[in-house]
Amino acid sequence: MSRTFRRGKLRYFALCCVVGSLLGGALSASAPPAWWRQGRPRRILGSRAEAELLSQLAVLLMPDQPIAEAFRDFPCQKGSDWGTNKLCPDLALHGVLEATDAALFIEYDGYFRHMSPSGLARDMRKTSALLKLAPAGSVVVRIAHEKREWKDKSSQIVVDCWYPEHPPSLVKALKQAATSLLRCCSAQLLPKTASRLEGFAAERLDLEARVFAKDAELIGMFNCSSNLQVQEFLQRALLVTSEQAEKLIERYPQMLRRRVDDHVTPTVKWIKGLGLSQSQVAKVIATFPRVLGYSIEANLKPTVDWIKGLGLSQSQVAKVIATFPHVLGYSIAANLKPTVDWIEGLGLSQSQVAKVIATFPQVLAYSIAANLKPTVEWIDGLGLSQSQVAKVIATYPQVLGYSIEANLKPTVEWIKGLGLSQSQVAKVIATYPQVLGLSIEANLKPTVEWIKGLGLSQSQVAKVIATYPQVLSYSIAANLKPTVEWIDGLGLSQSQVAKVIATSPRVLGYSIEANLKPTVEWIDGLGLSQSQVAKVIATYPQVLGLSIEANLKPTVEWIKGLGLSQSQVAKVIATFPNVLGYSIAANLKPTVEWIKGLGLSQSQVAKVIATYPQVLSYSIAANLKPTVDWIEGLGLSQSQVAKVIATFPQVLGCSIEANLKVKHCLLRRYFPGENAAIFLLARTPRLWSYSQTRLQHRLDVLKSQGQLSKLAGAMAMSLDAFNRRFPKPGSRKGLAGGSK
Predict the structure, then answer these.
(1) What is the pLDDT of residues 154-178, one digit of tens each?
(2) N or C: which end of the chain has fewer CB within 10 A?
(3) Domains along the chain?
(4) What is the pTM of this model?
């Protein structure tokens, strides 16, 4: 059973490079051209197939030159199209083309990677680099086993596969190459070269070339024992299969040039010693097998020490290597240090820089000029401050890897299209830069549509995103829907649920089992009914985000400590749940002490809080003090002011200009005696709570009947009761009065 070529042990079909043998007649008797002389013979060839094919071509095309001379490496200018300063054509020939000093480069593309998009792209770059290296009129010929669709300046030849050490199949491929070469390059070939191609009918291969191919030193195929030794080591050390070990050798055949005991084993042991698990070491080698070729003392250790010196812990260093082992191949002076210095120059602290590297080490691979700087400038252009930009990078360094045109710009435009202002968009990015990594179609759009479907208006949706952009990252099925259904199950109406989300979208980020359920059960345990609990959530959904131990429990205990009963505490929470969000030290305690300082007893203070807990939300300087000063300014004594507050604490929530002054002036018209209106308000401060229409109507009726002294009782009556008790002359029914 015949065997086919493999690179390592992977099966490959050796491409027939007959072309060269066919071209052999076009030898130049003159001295080699300058471009040729700049090259140096290559000691190691790429594969056995390449050696077999191209050695035959070397003999046919340049019989007066040693075969090894046709396998050459050339110095070249490193640039954007070719990333190294060395160019290695598979075969370089001169004296076979019409153009003066022109080169014929033959590339063997039989390996399967030449068919992949990345392989095609690299081949096209190499074609361009080769044509730049040689004089005008030079030709690049690429030989493969399948036709490839691309556009570059090379000529393609397709030949059959051949078997190793099987002359008949190799001769067949050579004949196919000769015919194809003559057809596609006839205008460029010297007449004698073309003549040789036309007359090529060899049935036997050149013996010298066969010996050269058999003895050639190959990348990845040094000898069977070396191959087997490395493969067995990889299987044993990395716990991989033989096939996986073969793939590793195939990806980095240079490891076969390193002795297992002297090089490979110490390197693997050293990597594992960084704190990586067995599987992580295997992944490092699989991802970046080139690491096995680096010196521990000269390359690996200095790089790791430098990374650790940034402030990363040992476990973080291990994670960096496991996540992005390519970092071990970068130059500290030329790559790593400039990148880190640039990131730090954005305004990040040393610890933030360390976190960036630990979180997203791939950033070290990006070009400052081509990637990092343009991205940061674009983010800055959204309206973020320098400190916000620094925070974005520190929080979500992955943003530096996104394309501005393909990712960042479309996402920002889409968010803005929801109705957010430019400043709101900037705030969204500054608050939650991770949104820039979400897919519009797969994440953002479905989530926004679902939120809108709860009954929120477009402006409310925009406010939700502006307030809590993190919601865009939540799963509808796993997070959002279960949370909303749970809230709905508390007894809230659909409109109340919508209001909860619009008012406090952060609730969508809370865990039902860890946050929502325990909080609601705790509130219920205070003595509130189910409907009261639902009202609390509908009125003040922010309560669901408060800690029971750190916020809720201490606040309730403090309120109870004022002298309120358990039922009164429950009523306070049911009436004004916002109190649970206030700081005891900064809000509640100062307000209560100020009220008590008016002259109220402890029991009166407790009654004020139980009756009107909203008073705890008022500013002493902006609300409470001005109101009390105004009441006191009417001429009431300190004790009378205290009685007013104790009797009707709601007065503290009334507007001086729109309520207190207006009612006082109205009463003075009906009670003209000196201080009569004032004494009336001191005895019955609840008069301030009635609407001006209701108050004036009943004052008019009572005055007409000479019963103004009964004003306090009359104001408390319902409209029907008032009309029956004080009917207008000639009418059984009183005039309609205003409500409170």
Answers:
(1) 999 998 888 777 888 888 888 888 8
(2) N
(3) 6-218 (no CATH), 366-473 (1.25.70.10), 584-689 (1.25.70.10)
(4) 0.65
